Amino acid sequence: MFPLQYPVPIAALPSEHEIDVQDLMRQFARLLSRDGVPVSGVTQDREYKGALKPKIILRDINSSHAYALSQDLGPGSVACNLDTSELALACGAIEKSAQSGVDLIFISKFSKQEASGYGLCDAFRSAMLARIPVVTAVSPHYRNEWRQFSGPLSEDISPNISALTEWWLRAQKNLILP
After folding, report:
1. Residue 105 near residue 33 (C-beta atoms within 8 A)
2. pLDDT digits (tens, 9 = 90+) for 66-91
3. Which residue segments constitute the domains of the chain, with CATH numbers given?
4. Which residues are bridge partners to 82 per DSSP?
5. What is the largest CA-CA distance in the chain?
6. Does the pLDDT value for residue 178 go beyond 80?
7. Distance between terminal CA atoms of the chain?
8. Which residues partner with 106 through β-bridges?
């Protein structure tokens, strides 16, 4: 894959407080964009428009394009309402951005789908193959699967702007090839 002396860094944020971490990723993306850093990716939102259960949406951080992950299966349904086609579209958009020359990719989270080898796994792989650093949230329920998936590429980061900024400065420095 990559020579070990030049690993592609991944900032893994704890997702215990998921909404706050997603907001933090959006805020960090805006700060970097204002500084002229080309960024891409998706973060997760939840909409509570009169529904008992929130609708989960992935939003493109540059265009605010929404990928509605929650399907309406009708009243009383207890089946999984994940719209895998929307998830695949979001994954494809991230893969495309990895080929477009961005400097940093945000991937909403590593959770149940990714732990099973699906979901946004290909988006992570595309970023790694393109040697683009990633910021993501990792579900505490899937930490072992995350460690197995990311190996030595991942670094746990405290969920705050200062820690992300320090990580980003190290990531840039470490990616410079001799």
Report:
1. no
2. 998 876 655 555 545 568 888 899 99
3. 10-43+84-175 (3.40.50)
4. 70
5. 60
6. no
7. 18
8. 41, 135
